[in-house]
What we know:
The chain is α/β, with parallel strands linked by helices. It contains 47 helices and 28 strands.
Amino acid sequence: MTLPALKSDSNLAIQYRAFIENLRASEFTGDIETSYSARVAQATDNSVYYKLPQAVIYPRSNEDCQLIGQLAAKYPDVSFAPRGGGTGTNGQSLTDGIVVDIRRYLNKVIELNVEEGWVRVQTGIVKDSLNDVLRPHGLFFSPDLSTSNRATLGGMISTDASGQGSLVYGKTSDHVIALKAVLVNGEVIETTKISTEMAKRKANENTAEGAIYKQAIDTCVNYKDEVERTFPKLNRFLTGYDLAHVYDGHHIDIGRLITGAEGSLAFVTEAVLTLDKIAPVKALINISYRSFDAALRHAPQLVEANATSVETIDSTVLNFAKTDIVWHDIQHLITDVPDEALLGLNLVEFNASSIEEMKGHIDCLEAAIEDAIKQGEGNISGYRITYDKADIQRIYAMRKKAVGLLGKVKGEQKPIAFAEDTAVPPEHLADFIAEFRALLDSHNLNYGMFGHVDAGVLHVRPALDLADPEQETLMHNLSDKVVKLVSKYGGLMWGEHGKGFRSEYGPEFFGETLFNEMRKIKAAFDPYNQMNPGKICTPLGSNDKLVSVKAVKRASIERIIPVTVKRDLAPAFECNGNGLCFNYEPASPMCPSSKVTSDRRHTPKGRASMLREWARLLSLSGQIDEKNGGGLSYKQFKSNVFSRLKNTVLTRDADFSHEVKAVMDGCLSCKSCTHQCPVNIDVPHFKSIFLSIYYQRYMRPLKDLLVANVETLAPLSAKVPSLYNRLLQHKWVTWFLKKKVEYVDTPLLSYPTLVDRVKSIVDTGDIEQLERLDNSEREKYVAVVQDPFTSFYDAKSVESLIKVISKMGLKPLLVPFTPNGKPAHVKGFLDKFEKQALGTAKQLNKIHELGITMVGADASLVLCYRDEYQKFLKDKRGKFFVHTIDEWLIDALPKSLNADINGSNGCDKNFSLLAHCSEKTAMPDTTARWQRIFQHLNVNLTHKPVGCCGMAGTYGHEASHLESSKALYTLSWAPVFACAQKETLNEVLVTGFSCRSQVARFEGSKPRHPIEVVNELI
């Protein structure tokens, strides 16, 4: 079977093509994307829905937004949807028109007034990024939400977001002083609270703003009593359009209409926001319960104790948290009572201005909890109090990850968002949830629950398989029933996450009178229904329909993809759109490529979207062989060098595969997503599968051939290292590698070689000789498993490891080099990888069967044995285990020191540690282990949190990646070494070989591996 060229639906509608052409011809300075991949990346958010936009526009300024609006006035049938973080759970920013993405450029703090406690920002700024700026001044923007490290202020304004602590801090709208917004006709308006008289004067002006003020007065003043009767009296008051708070009896603020309007009224480009002071004293009481109902029913008493916030989590979420990297940091902070099931957890936060004030809060609540436990009341099984702010943040990190963690459910049914932010009066929450659970239980559905019990908001996510038409219908029916259930308890269907595709329920909730008033407001702002049409309401007089929960879903368009293909590409299909990979933080290892491109395609979510669409188009082509239950593999597609050459050089057929390949090419294969993503998406895995198939149709570039064969070339070159190094430093070789192979800064071989360095102290690793030894003799051996990078390019670090083994009274054994296979895997040479992995597994299993401990010098290569070997070899992998240096040393070193091996008396120097991304995300204990190892040697070692260094194996050596590699290094690594240069008694140590190479490239000297220091100290 031949791999076909995949033709995508890349043609734009006529009116959109004309609009885009005219925008490009204007003075617009932003970016305009019409490629199919750019559109696919914006076709989903954090919801179940799917809408493919016509184009994506990234304005750089207010003026750019004005140009969009002015041109839109000439194209009334062109529609737009503003987009920030794209974290909406109900499809708020999805559109089949044009996405206007403000996050890429409009993300600055414009002005900060510390004395008066306010800030002016561009609305593309990420919420946590803003707080990073405010924190040194003792201030913060208080509305909190689980997606705060990727949600933008524009998105928060558009959904009137709130979250933890809303009883004290309120919603986003409670903090908006003023907005700058661009109407769809290009007119700029600036909103703030003004007197009713001034508003009436504005209403007489012959402008779009005048029409808006006139309608706001007509609706919000004249229908105030109707609004009072209809809008629930809840902390999570109604959003979109907030008629209840536009008029306070003396003032008009049309900004309250825009806040919560989900981008259906205007482009919001700037905001002035009030700030809160950071409380100097903070505490968190984590209360464990024997039932989730008990946690809910205890919440009102906790609120009465003047808690700042009360968050709750059920056992489903907690059990998934225990399988995630996040649990490593918090397990000691949550009471786990022996023989007691932890079925509910309340996180009760207090803030105070003094220790004395905090003591009053804590003593009172602690006494009440102790009394309840003593009396056997409330089903409380235990509690723990935490005062450390860093620990409190770690617990909230777990709570914030809850949505994504639910995606870890095994099987086809996944917890989904469609009725997940219901709000009822807190005193009715437990009864409401009891009925809600009964409804779900009647359909035998699994679900997870967590949320803000203090505000009566609980996030409930039933597990459904929307690829099954019957379960999609069930989702629609459940949605209808939940609307009625919420109404019974006097609550809201949309208490926190906006309406989006649930807008169809608006007319019934508001009633005809008020809903028509809302439609009049929409008409004043957007008479032709161009702004996010169908959301909230449509203009009065328009025949356009509201969007519905019955709209097209991602799962429904992917039904054509065979189940076997979904299985083989499972990580891409597991993605639930949570968007944690949009994390802005420079020191976070999650998806480095997205941090320097600001391109949603270059994220795990974006790459998963590309692969799913590629699989869908491939399925449509009919070129997938499903015989014998087969899935998708490079082995299905046949080609020869002539056909690949023709397709690469002569044929210019459109092929979506090229766009997917470009997106995959930007992936560093650092594996951070595999562990940091809540559903462990593992882009490098499906990237390797895609590349192995893609290159059945096209020729491979020389740089890929070089990388894939490095494990063959390095040992050969090491036979003449001096000659090789001299040759590599010739200008013409450097020129050839850069210009023809597209490879730069190729590392030099170690000289003397590893073998020459250690031949006097190491055993050669003859298996037959080892087999003749008895068990007690074999226990004295430690086998060093070689890898292609440290053994041949950084022999000193391996030499140090071998010397440490020897100094500890053990016998170092240097295992003969065999290819690990990781370089071949990264470049998609899966046939080569499988052959290399099988050969190496065979050798390592022999050593394992002899009971000899094995240690690898580079953690990323060691982890390949545990991950990729298991995925591809399965049962053929065997049971061998290779330790990382720290895993082995943490147990072996104390034993050796206790056996009178000379340790260290300490030294005057302090050390800092930077860990490899793959290592610290797969093994979150690694830095703590190194710190304990150094403690045994009476030396201080501190951990420096950094993101990716930008090298990631050979990524940084590829000419096409050089600038990205340099940008990544600058983000978080360069500042560490800049500081280190000023601290003569502090040495920075680096565990990853590629990281050390990157530092050497940009700093001029290579940092040491911590094992080199250990070797000096013992």
